[in-house]
Predict the structure.
Amino acid sequence: MLAEQSQSQVSATVMRQRSDLIKAVLAADPRVDNPLLWAGIANTETGMAHCYGEHAPYECPGPYSPECNGPVLAGYWDDYCDGSQEGGLGMFQFDYFTYPQTLALYGNTILTVQGNMTTAVQFVLDGAWNSGYTPAFSTKQDMYNWINGIRVGGAGWDLWLGFLANTYNGAAWGSARWVTVKAEYDSGTRAMLNLYGESYWYGTTPPPPAGTTCSPEGGLFCGNNGVPGDSNFLYVCKGGVPVVKQVCANGCNRAPAGQADSCLSGSSAPKTCSCANGRYKNGNLIPQSLTYCGFRTCGSDNKLYECGTGNQWVNTNVACGGACSCASGAHVNGTVINAADTSCHMEVCGGGNTFYECMGTSWSAVAGSSCRMN
């Protein structure tokens, strides 16, 4: 399954998004919670590349992926792009003879980033349980505990690398190839650890991504009081990005340093906003009738723009470029949001009058938020 991770063309922004998704996939799995191990596999296999064109020169165009809007990345070393269609597919390089046979075994879900990740989790767990080289586990919970306790350079680390080289890559145990592949997995995982740090992979409050503007995680801020934004909006720090949580009808209360800001109490109706001439990142026009306070979209300059109480689009200077594409979205009035118009950190007022943010391939509710269309 091994590719040439040193040739990855993935940007820092996309690398972070895919790392965040790996963390999210592992956080949702009740069995294992050691995301660095899977990030190490993906980095070693493809440098986190998933789509054809994100990894050069050792790649081939695989089957069409809607998420890539073109071919998924297919490995080069199995068929040298000679038409035999035998390379591994996607970020984790799944392969089972030909592309059709691979998809028949693993399903078309591996053509999406999240599906590729989710399948990789199960693939590794199955391999660890069935391997003759991992410890003799009495129960699967014992296996999960072993995996969850592995740290780079610590107990079980060398055995983990040997297991990957043998089961994931197919190198014969103890062979010269096995030794080389072990070193590659070691280097690829350490690179991800060094990139974001121990607290990102294992801490409860990961540091903000490079270029973002808020901390601590979960902190509440009035706009222009520790975070960029409208002074009548209350923001929450989510993944290092200030996300609109509420439009304050009577203004936002700036609390003393170290305390959470809040909306001022009162009985006024929420403020209304209407912003003309907006465009999604792909250049499509945003109907003014669909704009409202807190509506956010990514501009062509990869900066997040927000419809504010001045009835104008305001550049928040928060980075938003990347490969996010969120389907099945809709405004609270029922107007469907075209997935092609979505982008990273796009924020809309959705069902239940709750703000939703586009991250990766899905909409994430902003906990405790409230919103409304005009």
